[in-house]
Amino acid sequence: MSVHAPADLHAPAAAGPAAVDAATVRATRTVAVTVPDWPLLAALDRHQRRLEAAAGEEDAPAPAPLDLAAVPVILLDQHRVTHAGAAALEAGVRPGMTRRAARAACPEALVLEADREQETALFELVAAAVDTIAAGVDVLRPGVLLMSARGPARHQGGEERLAERILDAVADLTGWDCAVGIADGPFAALLASGPGRIVHEGRSADYLAPHPIQALRSAPVGPGWGHRGQPSAARPERRLDLAETVDLLQRLGITTLGDLAALPSAAVADRFGPDVATLHLLARGQEPAPPAAHHPTQPLLAETTLETPLVRTDQAAFIARPLAEQLHAMLVERGLVCTRLRIVARTEGGEEMERTWRHDGALTVADVVDRIRWQCDGWITRARLGGPATGAITRIGLHPLQLAPAGENAPALWGSAGEAAQRASRALARAQGLAGEEAVQVPALVGGRLLADEVALVPWRSERPARREGPWPGALPRPVPATVFRDPPAVRLEDAAGRPVVVTARGLLSGAPARLLVLAPGAPALQRAGLRAGSGCQVLAHAAPVVLDERWWARDGRRGARLQLVVRGASAEEVAVLALSRAGEWTLEGLYD
Known about the structure:
The protein is an alpha+beta fold. The protein has 17 helices and 21 strands. It is elongated.
């Protein structure tokens, strides 16, 4: 079976009031692959296979597949209707109905029960099909896949061609129909996947504006693009309830995403708090800043070699918890949490399989155990259901891909956000409301060779600029100075005879530094360290200079050098400083504690 992308793949490109300015930082170009009514399809597949197994035992012909348009089918979870087929909807069944009400509306309907583990395992077939077109597929939740668009689109010859290839691959390898949406940011891509659209770059805000506010119920909010829902017994902390938030916004007269996007950012954050401010950011066609990533010096890996190869799904339950606890202990020891996890398996034949899972917040031991079981079940099930054959699994490894300091995800003592943090949040929002968005700025790591380039100041609660990935030859190794000067003060470096010390073309010092003279009026940090303007400080020790050749291939390239010094300030205390030389002139980049 082959399906093709719809003819109208592109959203209107006309500029409007909600258009994103070209100068602003745009959200990540994202592909969303969704299988409509996936829980219902998975339950129907399970029911069909049971009928086939029963027919095989009785040597009866296999039953014909059920047609959702002709046969009414409803799916229940905790005695409530969550999904209904076309025939059931036509008979009057609606999601949210009780079992009794649904039965009364359509007595002849086939009633199926939801099974989250089976949905997750079966969805591996869809993920494996998309993997044949592009690598780097992340499972957001069963029924929804996310992936970056830029690399795969270049490889396939464009975004339209990429969407067509994904549609054909899923249909040919699984027999199910999927929908593909491409836009700036995961939220716009998820909504675009419904009609199967590709939203022009920079036009996500225009595309989102006319959507009803109910679309926020599927918003990928929180770290790792996970889905937030009702608090559970495993997660007792209070979290954003999307249904309640949507109802509140509707009662306030906000009926579309455009209405929400038109509200001032500071007013939304001040009135509703940071969670709704994140939804406001999504409605504007942007995406929340990812959690502060932490990259340990040694990659973390928890793996186990199985004495008995894994060939049955029930075996996964026995190996999942020890492996999850091993990873958890490694993270606790380093004060980290994981929000994005890759599960890797090796088979007896040497084949390697992997799948990445995103999550809203920190992955607990129970979360990791569930994902190991689901993924192993999916790999084994896909072969049984006619997918790519999977050999016996002999090794399983866990690779944390996205790490953050534990304190950023830990709940406060009296709730999900401490009282002090809430007061500070309200105060910052109030300051922005009075003095403008630029009045409150926070540091954001953006990457660079010089210390002043590594950090940029951005407005509080705004989208953070994309991090510039290295490598940065000549970058300062850790630990870095505790104080970095935005405007480096000018200094003079002299040898014992009073001659200026410079860095030669060969990267050597012209003389041994003996005295550091602060020329310009010193910053408060310099004065506290005893480095006052016009004062000379004795150089006690120095390192070898590190030459910096910036953009040496271009005409505007610059050459400089770094030098670490230990000097004695006016208070007779030893101070470690970092000096930077350009064109024979010295400045101070920073001070060490």
